[in-house]
Structures are given as structure tokens and as C-alpha cells.
Design brief:
By secondary structure, the chain is mainly alpha-helical. It has a domain of 104 residues: Glutathione S-transferase Yfyf (Class Pi), Chain A, domain 2, CATH 1.20.1050.
């Protein structure tokens, strides 16, 4: 039996951030309640800046002031706390992560995220066009589609942490030009994306919350 938390942790989040989405999905999957503080990345509250040098989301703050400010660390903590048995499907395969699983996440968070940002935001300092960045991203998309031609999910026929860790970024990529993405030959990837987009877990964590306002103490 999972021991209840003495006090709800605080989660600083931004609704559309893919890193925050995957952390919220893991917390929701594990039934872990949090005090959610929705923040604007352009106007980060002082409370967030004080607890995390990164000043990015998600950040999970515990009652004893311990802090987790990496989305994957939050996912690991939630699953290890709630579903520690590797034979439990709800463990999402965390207890037996293969080198291939780690490589997929590293590629997603590294080269693919870099290409995604170039495609979505077209930074002025980049010497590539958005279409060039999209072409770079397609290397990873094609790999994912090949994996999904073999199994229902990326690493087998059950959802794994890898699926949930990568899904929000593919969602963001597809949303840049949905018509283009829908016309691609990544049929299995499209089906996989639709599965998560319509899942109760994703719907649950995408409920809109008002922006959290830090209380100012007047002395």
C-alpha cells in the first residue's frame, strides 16, 4: 500500500509545455494529487525562480522543500513510488528500461527537440529554414513509425514510459502544420498520436487552470 503524502506537493506547470505535460500525465497515472500552479513562461513568478535555478517547468516541490525540476525525474519518482513492481503494467516498463528505450528518449529530448524548435519557432540565429528543420525531425518520425509497424506502442504492446515521454513532443510537432502531418505516410505514428490525444489520461491533464498569482505580503 502506498503511504499517503503528508502534504500535497506543489507543481509549477505550463499547460502546453511538452515537458510539463509528460510530468502531469505520470502524476495523474499514479493518482498523485498536487497543488498545481499554472505559470506564464514569459512572466515567471519569484517563487519559481527562488526554488529552481533552471526557472523552467515542470518543478515539483515537496513539503520538506525538496525539489524535482526535471520532467523525467518527476515521472520516475511518481511511478517508483506508486507502481514499483516491474511486472505491473502500470510500472510502464520503468524497472526494465533497455538501452534502446533510453536512446529513444535521449533522441527525442536532444536532436528531435532541437529540430522541433527550429521548425516551430524559426529562430533568427538559425541558418536553416523551418522546412530544413522539419526534414531533420523526420529522421526520428520515420524511426518511430517503423517501431509502431511492429507493435501497438513503441516498445511493445503495452504503454511504456517511453511512449508517454515522447508523445507530447510529437503532438507539438504535428500541431505546427497539421494538414502537412496528416498527409504524410507516417500512418502508424498518426494512429499512435490519436490514441494518446483521445485518451482519458491526456484529457485529464489538459484541463485549463487560471494563472497562479503569488500573494504579496505587505509589511
Amino acid at each position: 500500500m502506498v503511504k499517503p503524502l503528508n502534504k500535497l506537493p506543489i507543481l509549477y506547470s505550463f499547460r502546453r509545455c511538452p515537458y510539463a505535460i509528460r510530468a502531469r500525465m505520470a502524476l495523474a497515472h499514479c493518482g498523485i494529487e498536487v497543488q498545481l500552479r499554472e505559470v506564464l513562461l514569459a512572466q515567471k513568478p519569484d517563487a519559481l525562480l527562488r526554488i529552481s535555478a533552471k526557472a523552467s517547468v515542470p518543478v515539483l516541490v515537496f513539503a520538506d522543500s525538496a525539489v524535482l525540476d526535471e520532467s523525467l525525474d518527476i515521472m520516475h519518482w511518481a511511478i517508483n513510488r506508486t507502481y514499483p513492481q516491474g511486472t505491473d503494467p502500470k510500472n510502464w516498463g520503468l524497472s526494465a528500461m533497455s538501452p534502446a528505450a533510453h536512446r529513444l528518449i535521449e533522441t527525442n529530448d536532444g536532436p528531435f527537440k532541437l529540430a522541433l524548435d527550429g521548425y516551430k519557432y524559426d529562430p533568427a540565429e538559425s541558418n536553416k529554414s523551418p522546412q530544413d528543420h522539419r526534414a531533420d525531425a523526420q529522421i526520428f518520425l520515420a524511426e518511430l513509425d517503423r517501431l509502431l509497424c511492429q507493435n501497438k506502442f513503441l516498445l511493445g504492446d503495452q504503454i511504456s514510459l517511453v511512449d508517454v515521454a515522447i508523445f507530447p513532443f510529437i503532438r507539438q510537432f504535428a500541431g505546427v502544420d497539421q494538414l502537412w502531418f496528416d498527409k504524410t505516410d507516417y500512418r502508424k505514428l498518426q494512429q499512435w498520436l490519436a490514441f494518446f490525444m483521445h485518451s482519458e489520461l491526456f484529457t485529464q491533464v489538459m484541463v485549463k487552470h487560471p494563472v497562479w498569482q503569488e500573494k504579496v505580503t505587505i509589511s
